[in-house]
Amino acid sequence: MIEDEEITDEERREAEALAHALERGSAREDLPEDALQTAALLRYGRDGGALPPDRAEAVLSDVLEAADRIAARTPERRRPPRWGWVLGAVGLAAALMLFVWLRPRGPTTATALPAPDPAVLEARLAGDDARFDDAMGDYRGAVYAALEERYGAR
Question: pTM (2 decimals)?
């Protein structure tokens, strides 16, 4: 040790960080690169890089604790069951069957309905219910006939 010079606070911090790194602890951020390299070289020269059993157990427990913390924060992703695609295919087939079954049939243009007979309107305005019912019956028959011609009987 040099007696002429006093040890500065910075040198003391570097020495503490180097001692910490030599004990196989985690290297701190304030450890200079050359001190870290020196610690690694000294450690390797002393034991060939082997960890003592107690330190190996401590490192393993630290790693397992960190893994548990990460696993607790990560939501578990579940894989869908293998038969899920079968259910999807059955659902798709059912949707297609409903589409085919419920689709409109026949022509999509408007049906030309017959115009009402003026006799229907005259009977209604005159208040003659018997004549109105007869005229309306004839008109309904003509409407139903036009619809049946267009869409067919069901």
Answer: 0.30
Q: Which residue has the tokens 């267009």?
A: 150
- Read off the pLDDT of residues 17-34 as tens digits, 9 standing for 90 and up: 777 766 655 566 666 777
CA 79 to chain centre: 13
Give domain limits for the chain: 9-73, 110-154
The phi and psi torsions of 117 (rounded to 5 degrees) equal -70, 135
From residue 55, alpha-carbon distances to 35, 61, 69, 125, 132 in Å are 22, 10, 21, 109, 108
27-31: long-range contacts at Cβ-Cβ below 8 A with a sequence spacing of 24 or more?
A: none
Which of 121, 141, 144 lies closest to 131 in space, CA to CA?
Answer: 121
